[in-house]
Amino acid sequence: MRAPLGDFDVVRPAPEALDLLVAPVADAVRGWSGAVPADELIHVDTDPQWADTATFVEHYGPELLAQSANCVVVAGKRAGETTLAACVVLSATRVDVNGVVRRQLGARKASFASMDTAVGETGMEYGGITPIGLPGSWPILVDAAVADLPYVLIGSGSRRGKLIVPGKAFAGLPNAVVIEGLGA
């Protein structure tokens, strides 16, 4: 099988790579019910030392930067309550935490969640967090530019491996909201 983008040696539909996925991601793939068939979620095996975006595109090709997205965990606070959410933006952009995210969550203050919180609450490795398999109650804020891409390279839940997902699949995730200008 050949990946729809990039040049990777080991490429499999995600349902055939469940053994390589962390439990929450494997469970989400196993129970996938999105409009995009689960077989269109592709797992590519990659070396964990190249997991971070800058080193990844340096190693696997700079053309992947325009087709890569990051998933970051944010915490919105209001009246002593904290709401965790995920933001999915193109890798070449930054999440507008203090503007778009804060307003979308109805929070007085929003910030990036600590690494311990992000890892502990998602069951995923830092540097590999993906919106697929997040807690079902979390809002998933997706930049429209991500949803508009034919395919997007994103974390797989661990630092080893990435997922290649049709952009439109992100809009169908539980509690997903597609937002213009989330990434700036």
Automatic annotation (TrEMBL):
The record's annotation in InterPro entries points to:
YbaK/aa-tRNA-synt-asso_dom_sf, YbaK/aa-tRNA-synth-assoc-dom
- Residue intervals of the YbaK/aminoacyl-tRNA synthetase-associated domain: 63-168
Q: What is this protein called?
A: YbaK/aminoacyl-tRNA synthetase-associated domain-containing protein
Q: Which CDD domains would you find in this protein's record?
A: PA2301 (cd04939)
> Where does this protein come from, organism-wise?
Streptomyces lasiicapitis
| UniProt cross-references to SUPFAM superfamilies, sorted A to Z | YbaK/ProRS associated domain
